[in-house]
Structure formats: structure tokens, C-alpha cells
Design brief:
Length: about 650
């Protein structure tokens, strides 16, 4: 007979076994549920991720396509025909395929590099050697202080320093509506341009200029490309005269290039730092864009500073080493960089804008060449550009004519006012026909010693391009033929000819065509063509030239002089239709390659950051990501649960 104590123990054991069975069933159920839960949402996780991008559209239809899409519009840039949006990959892809959308570009992070050449330690007020270097006091003596000129300083803002009078501003960053500087750099740049002359602290070059603080960087010196575009859009809307861009980036941006071009076309002068990576490195952007004035930095001995980036696109040089200026609070700091140099050029342009108020931005940009001291190699070079800015103009020859006076400064006051020179609008139309910007056409003229703005009318400019033999017209002819000047000079020397032997561009064009045909025929002969080569068959003969030997009839050359005469005779046999117009092609071809960069480092000193691969939109394999780990864990749990379930069923079956 089983005792009550033993029965009680048996009941307890059976109860525990029942509870264990129930626990195992629950574990199996939970494992299966967790496993399935982890597996289901994975395929949907990245589809919900949104990116912020810049969309630039071609027309009103493109703008409407953006507005009607599933994207969230973060900022609309009316002046730039663009918008910053947040959207998923599917929406972005749809916009990319829209024929009314010009392109879509990832919004890039911008920041100050940690390698900035900046001394932020407190320093006593020192002599401002930079003002003596550019002879700023001579401008002040002439009453030039930048009065009435509006300068937008795109930076970290401007602090309310006792030396600075801030006319207004705008904040493009998200965390504050205030344009007050909370980083320090923007205030330093502003002081170089416009610190007051109050006999204490520092003096600015254009103390009466209207300073506008456009805050595009936060208190850590970081922001986004979309913020910079917002600032440029504001500057265009508010009719700024000058935009100072004391920042730079190593990578190009289509959106930024389009934005600065729009500002330039709106009549604004744009000035930017060349970069602080030294010789051997390309210029930073936006300084490298044609619509922007690139500035290199000099030291107190007028030598190029060791940190300054240099290159063919440098347009001017200005002091940039150990520059004293205003800082946060009531402080002053000494800083170095091409950013400081750019501020000097912006201020000098403000002085010239006050002196020549009716000059366009194109004319002021060209005029500044006169207010530059030529250093380094003669003429424009990769170190100083046109030279170190200086007032008054070191060279007075061939002065430009300002629209406000209609005469050169060298004319006597009593002389009759001359008619205005060739107008900017006429030059713009001409440049468009040539598929060039006006500044590119002006630079081409200047490279050969001609001043595009110094002609009395457009006919004189056209004569330089179409009617006369000169370096400019020869340049375009060679561009059309795909030849360089060295090839032409070698061919002319081989035939004892010079450019003086050609009276019109048409004659030279025919000669170049003959030379091209001759090369083609020689190539054909070398490949085994036994037919007689006719080197002049493409040159037409007019009806009144039938008495001349047929072009395909061999002409005996008894002497070098006879060859020369015959060559010129053939060149004169040009169809009159060819004299109507010379087709010209653009000097530079646009780069249509797609550029999508995850991060562009904008810095006051240099790009300062090694190239980074685009990581946005790229994902690690699922097994290496948090969600991937959940998938693996879910799978393991599901398998474990299934095994336990089958084992439990098997045990139960055996027990029966």
C-alpha cells in the first residue's frame, strides 16, 4: 500500500512534468512567432528610407513635377530653378527620368576642415601690414569707402562686434533664425571688409559698405549644400552687389555651379578663396568656376603664401597671411588663409563699385585688372593671376570707359562726352553666338592684348573676330579646324609663308582646309591607295576664275617663289558663300559625366579631407547589419522552435 507521502510526491512530479510540457509548447510557439516576425519586415526596411537631394528643373513643367511628386519639399529656390527635397529612392528615380528635370544631386554636407590655418589665440592689436600692401589709405583719401555697396558674406554669420555695422542678413541653417556668428570665422572675414575707422582696433578696407550676414554654417562650422544654395538664392532676390565666399571644396557640384552662374548673370560679383592646400593641388570650388573670381594669398613680402593653392584659374592675389581682424565678443584674432585674401578682393571691388557705380559686374571684374600690381611672370600667371590688388591703379594705359561718365579719366573735363562704348547687351548676344560667356570672350581678347570693352561699337569687335587676321580670329579658325598654333606655324614656315601673306580670314581658312586635305590624302596613299592625290579638290572656283589652271591639273613649281604665288592664288579662289560667316565653336566642352558625392567638405582653409567614397545609399550585407543580425537570430529561433516542437511530439507519441 502506497503511503500518502509517496502519492503526494508522485503528484508533484507529474505536475512538474505537465508544467514542463506546457513550458516547452510555449517556447516553441514564441520561437516560431519571433522567427516569423523577424523575417517579414526586412524586405520593406530600405524602401522607406528617404534621402535629401537637390532637384534642378528645366522649366515650369519640371517644377510642377517636383511639387506633384511624393517628395517633401524642404526648400524652394525660385531664383535658381531648383528645390531641396526629401524623397524615397523610387520617387527620386522617377524625377531623374523626367525630361523636364535637368538633374538630381545628393545634398552634400559642408564643414570646416580641422586642418584650417587659423590662430585663434588672443593677440594684441598689431599693425595691419595688409592695408599698406594694397595701399588702402590712398582710396580713403579719394573718398572711397564702399558706401552704398551691398556685400553678402556667406559664412557662419557676423557677430555684433563694436567695430562692425551689420545692415541685415539671413539664416539658412535649421537650428536658428538668427544670423549672428556663433563660430567666429564669419566675423573675422567681415572685419577685413568693413570694420569701422574709429581710431581703435582694426580698420576695414570698405568701412561704409553695407554688410549682410548670410549664415550658411552652424556653430561647429558645418552645414549643407542646400543651405549654401539657399543663401545664394537670397542674395539674388535681395540684389546684392558682391558675394564673398570664404570657403572651398575639393569636389565639384553641378547645383553649386549653376547657382553661382545664375548669380553672375544677375549682375553679382562672386569672390572665393582658391584653397589652402599649397602648390600642386587644384583650386577649390566654387573658386574654380568661371563665373567666380579666384583669389590666392600673399604674405607681408608680397610672395605667395606657402599654404595658398595656385593654378591657371587664379585671377587675383591679395594679403592672406597673419591677418588681424574682428572676432567673437569684443575680441580680435590673427588668422591666415585664402579666405582672408578673398575678403580683400571683395572690399576692393566695393571701392571700385562706388567709384564707377554704373559699371556692370563684367566691367568691374575687368577693371580690377588695372588695379593690380603685376608680380611674378609678366602678364597673367598661375601664382598671382593678373597681380596683387592695389589702389590706385599701378598701370594707367588703356583705361576702361565707365558707363557713368562715358569718357576715360584721362580726358579733359571740357571735352565733349563721347558716345558709350560697345554695350554689354551687344557683347552678351555675340558671346551667345560664339557659345561662350562674356567673361570667357573677354579673357580670350585679353590673352592676346586686346580689351573687349574698349571698342566704340560692335562692328569693331566683329572685325577682330571675322574680318581681320589677328590672334583672336586665328584662334577661332584653329579651334574650328582642330589644329593648334604650333602646327600652323610649322606649315607656314615649311612653305615660306607668314600670316601677313593672308589678307582675310577666308584666305587663311581655305589654306587650313587645303593643309587638312593634304594630310588626309597622304594618309590614304600610305595605306595603299594608288590613285592620284588631289590636294585641292575641295576648294571651289568662282565663275570669273575660269582662266586659272584647273585645280586638279598639276602645276610645275620652277622655284620656291612660284610655289608661294600659286598658293596665294589658289587661296583667293574661295566661294563667296564661305565669306558670309565663319562658324565658330565653343572653347570649352561641358562635362556631362554624372557626379554624385555623399559629402563635400567646404572649408575656410582647404578641403583638408581625403577623398571619401560615396556611402549614401550603399548598405552592408544583411548579415553585417543590425537588421541582418535580427534576420539571422529569427531564423535560428525558428529552426530551434521547430526542432523542439518535433522532439516534443515525438516524445509524446512514444509515451502513448
Amino acid at each position: 500500500m502506497v503511503s500518502a507521502d509517496i502519492k503526494e510526491r508522485i503528484y508533484l512530479v507529474e505536475g512538474k512534468l505537465a508544467m514542463n510540457k506546457l513550458l516547452r509548447r510555449n517556447v516553441v510557439f514564441v520561437s516560431l512567432l519571433v522567427g516569423l516576425t523577424c523575417l517579414f519586415p526586412v524586405n520593406h526596411s530600405y524602401a522607406e528610407e528617404e534621402k535629401q537631394v537637390i532637384v534642378v528643373y528645366k522649366n515650369k513643367q519640371g517644377e510642377e513635377a517636383v511639387q506633384e511628386s511624393d517628395a517633401a519639399i524642404e526648400e524652394q529656390y525660385e531664383q535658381l530653378s531648383a528645390a531641396a527635397i526629401s524623397a524615397d529612392t523610387e520617387t527620386i528615380d522617377v524625377l531623374k527620368e523626367d525630361p523636364d528635370i535637368k538633374y538630381v544631386e545628393l545634398d552634400s554636407k559642408i564643414s570646416i576642415s580641422t586642418s584650417d590655418v587659423v590662430d585663434k589665440s588672443k593677440t594684441p592689436v598689431l599693425d595691419q601690414w595688409n592695408l599698406a600692401s594694397i595701399q588702402a589709405s590712398a582710396a580713403w583719401e579719394d573718398g572711397l569707402t564702399g558706401k552704398g555697396v551691398k556685400i553678402a558674406i556667406m559664412d557662419s554669420g557676423i557677430y555684433s562686434h563694436q567695430e562692425l555695422h551689420i545692415t541685415g542678413g539671413y539664416s539658412a541653417v535649421d537650428y536658428t533664425t538668427s544670423y549672428e556668428d556663433d563660430e567666429g570665422y564669419g566675423t573675422h572675414v567681415a572685419g577685413i571688409i568693413g570694420a569701422e575707422h574709429d581710431e581703435h582696433g582694426t580698420d576695414g578696407i570698405a568701412p561704409d559698405a553695407d554688410l549682410f550676414a548670410v549664415k550658411v554654417l552652424d556653430d561647429t562650422g558645418e552645414g549643407y549644400l542646400s543651405d549654401l544654395l539657399e543663401g545664394i538664392n537670397w542674395a539674388i532676390s535681395n540684389n546684392m552687389d558682391i558675394i564673398n565666399l570664404s570657403m572651398g571644396a575639393a569636389d565639384e557640384s553641378d547645383a553649386l555651379e549653376d547657382a553661382v552662374q545664375k548669380a553672375y548673370q544677375a549682375g553679382i560679383l562672386l569672390v572665393a578663396a582658391s584653397g589652402n592646400e599649397g602648390a600642386g593641388h587644384p583650386l577649390d570650388y566654387p573658386a574654380a568656376y568661371e563665373s567666380v573670381i579666384a583669389v590666392s594669398a600673399t604674405d607681408s613680402n608680397d610672395n605667395i603664401a606657402s599654404f595658398s593653392s595656385i593654378g591657371d584659374k587664379v585671377e587675383f592675389a591679395a594679403p592672406g597671411a597673419d591677418i588681424q581682424s574682428t572676432y567673437l565678443g569684443s575680441d580680435y584674432r590673427v588668422m591666415s588663409g585664402t579666405s582672408q585674401a578673398a575678403a580683400h578682393v571683395s572690399a576692393m571691388l566695393a571701392l571700385l563699385k562706388q567709384q564707377f557705380p554704373d559699371d556692370t559686374n563684367l566691367q568691374l571684374r575687368t577693371r580690377l585688372q588695372q588695379y593690380s600690381k603685376d608680380l611674378g611672370q609678366e602678364g597673367r600667371d598661375a601664382l598671382y593671376g593678373y597681380g596683387l590688388i592695389q589702389f590706385p591703379a599701378p598701370v594707367q594705359e588703356e583705361e576702361l570707359v565707365s558707363n557713368d561718365s562715358g569718357r576715360s579719366e584721362s580726358e579733359n573735363a571740357g571735352d565733349e562726352v563721347k558716345e558709350e562704348k560697345v554695350t554689354t547687351e551687344e557683347l552678351r548676344i555675340l558671346a551667345d553666338d560664339l557659345k561662350l560667356r562674356i567673361d570667357e570672350l573677354a579673357d580670350l581678347f585679353a590673352a592676346y592684348g586686346f580689351d573687349l570693352y574698349n571698342y566704340d561699337n560692335l562692328n569693331e569687335v566683329n572685325d577682330m573676330i571675322y574680318q581681320s587676321i589677328n590672334e583672336v580670329s586665328v584662334h577661332f579658325l584653329l579651334e574650328k579646324a582642330g589644329m593648334d598654333r604650333e602646327q600652323l606655324d610649322q606649315q607656314l614656315a615649311a612653305e615660306d609663308l607668314t600670316l601677313d601673306d593672308f589678307h582675310t580670314p577666308e584666305e587663311l581658312s581655305a589654306y587650313i582646309k587645303e593643309f587638312e586635305q593634304r594630310i588626309e590624302n597622304e594618309v590614304g596613299t600610305s595605306e595603299g591607295n594608288d590613285e592620284e592625290v588631289n590636294t585641292t579638290q575641295d576648294i571651289p572656283i568662282t565663275d570669273d576664275q575660269t582662266d586659272v589652271n584647273p585645280i586638279n591639273t598639276p602645276v610645275e613649281a620652277d622655284s620656291a617663289e612660284k610655289e608661294k604665288v600659286d598658293s596665294v592664288t589658289v587661296l583667293q579662289q574661295v566661294d563667296s558663300d564661305e565669306k558670309a560667316k565663319i562658324n565658330l565653336r565653343t572653347v570649352q566642352q561641358a562635362d556631362d559625366s554624372n557626379r554624385e558625392t555623399d559629402e563635400i567638405i567646404f572649408t575656410y582653409k582647404s578641403a583638408g579631407k581625403p577623398y571619401q567614397d560615396d556611402q549614401q545609399g550603399k548598405h552592408l550585407p544583411d548579415t553585417a547589419s543590425p537588421i541582418g543580425n535580427m534576420i539571422v537570430a529569427g531564423g535560428v529561433l525558428a529552426v530551434t522552435g521547430l526542432v523542439l516542437y518535433l522532439r516534443n511530439r515525438r516524445t509524446k507519441f512514444r509515451s502513448k
